[in-house]
């Protein structure tokens, strides 16, 4: 599908072992030229190792990396048309901002770097900081210097290793928009490594979710969110309720799944795995914000999926929404996020409620997968 | 002390050169070779040579040459003759090390936690005495502890020192000198380990109903143990072999093993001097090993 | 109220004790400076008998003293160069390279620091004597010894600096088109240099101040510490204290000016 002129970044069967530990396992990946690509995953999933192999800072154990027609698998880092924005920036502390940004140009033997460096500092809005040393800048400014230092070389691919990880939340949001703007402006391929799902979804055209050295799923952010194909993706991108159910037949293009006497319907194309459907045992998944609450016994199942006789066990009011925990008759607690539109009824702890949602929002996953895979721990937030 | 911004994000990337990041190949050996060779020829081989000298027949001399007779008796003879000086060295060095710890801990603690903006100045002050020759400094103790000096006057005045009492040329003077000379070797490692302790741990201790003293005992002291171990070793080892303080501040009854070795060398009794040297080194190695074993830390280098 | 008072005392008593200990450490320095202005009543008098500028105006009056100082400076200078060069190379090998026998290398560096000087001095003497150099002890044997005992301190100092160097800085340089050679001279070396400089200063002061090892291996040569030692037996010329004071103030000046320089640079641009 890629046209032959494109300078796509292609990883084929890339593997990296540290001793016996496989950090990256037989990875295939194509990053189209000019795209903003995010590698998303938890700590230790192999995303940074992948990035470092593309930069040439880590040697491949097996496989190949090509950039357009050129095989760069074993090129020295300084021979690759690839630049990196490092986590914590790695600015040279003994050089001024100007010299940091000029470093790459000077090493390529370019004279007269002044104009280019000034333009680049202008682009990242640091024009008047050229004479300072890195330690005299704030975190956000240092981050922009690191970006300028890499971008000025006009690389074919820019690698960003958790570039916003060291910034506070507010600054991080501002820099996300800034990075996206710059990428659109310069049109260079960006490969962005992050563990922050919101960051990946805000910025990238394409997100690849990585786990344990493998890519779990790849696609546009909305596609990944609405249509997760593994429990890991369902939990790592946002939150999901996963309910164990038995498949007991199909109605046209809908699959019927049964849980404790209730029947749930799922469009056939929203089932991740046909084999799982045939085996009969599945996870029925639904995002908490897609679920509505109604007072116990009031909801009729006219085409929507309904689970009855839930009991509210916890209510947290968080401004735009209210988050409920509802204990179901089989003991599982399900999450429900209700928007505070004012039109919805409030419930209290102990109230009996019915849960209902549209079959089109439901997804089916393989019941052999771990339902807690990818659940984000609090301390990683 | 470090000014580099610490990465706040999850530390997935390498933080320090991990062993697998070290370069392979011959360059390492090439870089290592000159220094290793120097240490081999001028430190390790001399040690061997010292051991063999200690086994020479003591009846030889520099002029007539020594014959290698495996004369183990050198050890027995010197040890029985100089055991008093030997034990005295260990005792003096031990007392001085203890004194260094008692003086050095409050100082290191004050620099690490109480000095505020004067921290660097106080650190400079700790090493400043190093800036001038230690022999000259030791000599000035002769004056401070002299019979006419105010220190002696005050001590006589409050009755701690008899009318005829001296400070100079006493064991006390020798220990004072040793303590003085090796105090920075105690303070600096202590400071280095105390400085690493997060002051918030003190607050956490207080928050958990520990009195300041309990916090100090249960939190600060255990965390500073590497510094205590390094400091006591760095003080005790050179102190045990020192003879300058004993010579300049002591009297013939305060002679330490270092004086004996030096005098034997001066007198040309090489085998005996070598035997004593080897004994001293062996004693120190044994004590250090036992001590490290007890203290349970191996972070020395 | 009582608790707060207790806390105040607790807070400040440690500082007070610390300052008293510092005073103890500085007392001899005061004496050295004071005695440099001493006008001794007799040759063997070692007490302050009167004030004079004479010693400062005629520092080289005691026979042989300035020769001893010159010798110590020469040896200190050469020992510093030798030890710093060898030690820096070794530190790079230890931190950056993979080789067999790492623990042996670590023991080699650690042992000289853990040996009493008298043992190191006597073992070197034993080597020189059994190798037949007993008659040629002098400048070169002193230099050899000094390089040997300074080496370990250089290795430890440079190693610490090198280990604290973020490897990502060098990776960033390589990523920005600097080859191995350029990366070393433009990034690694400038960043490790303060450590090398500190190691060199330490080496010089260790060498200049050494007595025990030097005394055993010096033959007929007299370094400054040996001169002081000899003078201590005969009667101490006040000029020794002039040299001691000059050394002290020179070093103090260097340290303070570098500190002030760093602070000012930080303030001007912050």
TrEMBL record, chain A:
<dbReference type="InterPro" id="IPR017871">
    <property type="entry name" value="ABC_transporter-like_CS"/>
</dbReference>
<keyword id="KW-0472">Membrane</keyword>
<keyword id="KW-1003">Cell membrane</keyword>
<dbReference type="GO" id="GO:0016887">
    <property type="term" value="F:ATP hydrolysis activity"/>
</dbReference>
<comment type="similarity">
    <text>Belongs to the ABC transporter superfamily. Spermidine/putrescine importer (TC 3.A.1.11.1) family.</text>
</comment>
<dbReference type="InterPro" id="IPR050093">
    <property type="entry name" value="ABC_SmlMolc_Importer"/>
</dbReference>
<dbReference type="InterPro" id="IPR003439">
    <property type="entry name" value="ABC_transporter-like_ATP-bd"/>
</dbReference>
<dbReference type="Pfam" id="PF08402">
    <property type="entry name" value="TOBE_2"/>
</dbReference>
<dbReference type="GO" id="GO:0015417">
    <property type="term" value="F:ABC-type polyamine transporter activity"/>
</dbReference>
<keyword id="KW-0547">Nucleotide-binding</keyword>
<keyword id="KW-1278">Translocase</keyword>
<dbReference type="InterPro" id="IPR013611">
    <property type="entry name" value="Transp-assoc_OB_typ2"/>
</dbReference>
<dbReference type="GO" id="GO:0043190">
    <property type="term" value="C:ATP-binding cassette (ABC) transporter complex"/>
</dbReference>
<dbReference type="InterPro" id="IPR008995">
    <property type="entry name" value="Mo/tungstate-bd_C_term_dom"/>
</dbReference>
<dbReference type="InterPro" id="IPR003593">
    <property type="entry name" value="AAA+_ATPase"/>
</dbReference>
TrEMBL record, chain B:
<keyword id="KW-1133">Transmembrane helix</keyword>
<feature type="transmembrane region" description="Helical">
    <location>
        <begin position="121"/>
        <end position="145"/>
    </location>
</feature>
<dbReference type="GO" id="GO:0055085">
    <property type="term" value="P:transmembrane transport"/>
</dbReference>
<feature type="transmembrane region" description="Helical">
    <location>
        <begin position="29"/>
        <end position="51"/>
    </location>
</feature>
<keyword id="KW-0472">Membrane</keyword>
<comment type="similarity">
    <text>Belongs to the binding-protein-dependent transport system permease family. CysTW subfamily.</text>
</comment>
<protein>
    <submittedName>
        <fullName>ABC transporter permease</fullName>
    </submittedName>
</protein>
<dbReference type="InterPro" id="IPR035906">
    <property type="entry name" value="MetI-like_sf"/>
</dbReference>
<feature type="transmembrane region" description="Helical">
    <location>
        <begin position="90"/>
        <end position="109"/>
    </location>
</feature>
<feature type="domain" description="ABC transmembrane type-1">
    <location>
        <begin position="86"/>
        <end position="291"/>
    </location>
</feature>
<dbReference type="Pfam" id="PF00528">
    <property type="entry name" value="BPD_transp_1"/>
</dbReference>
<dbReference type="InterPro" id="IPR000515">
    <property type="entry name" value="MetI-like"/>
</dbReference>
<feature type="transmembrane region" description="Helical">
    <location>
        <begin position="219"/>
        <end position="240"/>
    </location>
</feature>
<keyword id="KW-0812">Transmembrane</keyword>
<keyword id="KW-1003">Cell membrane</keyword>
Automatic annotation (TrEMBL), chain C:
<dbReference type="GO" id="GO:0055085">
    <property type="term" value="P:transmembrane transport"/>
</dbReference>
<keyword id="KW-1003">Cell membrane</keyword>
<dbReference type="InterPro" id="IPR051789">
    <property type="entry name" value="Bact_Polyamine_Transport"/>
</dbReference>
<dbReference type="InterPro" id="IPR035906">
    <property type="entry name" value="MetI-like_sf"/>
</dbReference>
<feature type="transmembrane region" description="Helical">
    <location>
        <begin position="12"/>
        <end position="37"/>
    </location>
</feature>
<keyword id="KW-1133">Transmembrane helix</keyword>
<protein>
    <submittedName>
        <fullName>ABC transporter permease</fullName>
    </submittedName>
</protein>
<keyword id="KW-0812">Transmembrane</keyword>
<dbReference type="Pfam" id="PF00528">
    <property type="entry name" value="BPD_transp_1"/>
</dbReference>
<comment type="similarity">
    <text>Belongs to the binding-protein-dependent transport system permease family. CysTW subfamily.</text>
</comment>
<feature type="transmembrane region" description="Helical">
    <location>
        <begin position="242"/>
        <end position="261"/>
    </location>
</feature>
<feature type="transmembrane region" description="Helical">
    <location>
        <begin position="107"/>
        <end position="131"/>
    </location>
</feature>
<feature type="transmembrane region" description="Helical">
    <location>
        <begin position="75"/>
        <end position="95"/>
    </location>
</feature>
<feature type="transmembrane region" description="Helical">
    <location>
        <begin position="183"/>
        <end position="208"/>
    </location>
</feature>
<feature type="domain" description="ABC transmembrane type-1">
    <location>
        <begin position="69"/>
        <end position="261"/>
    </location>
</feature>
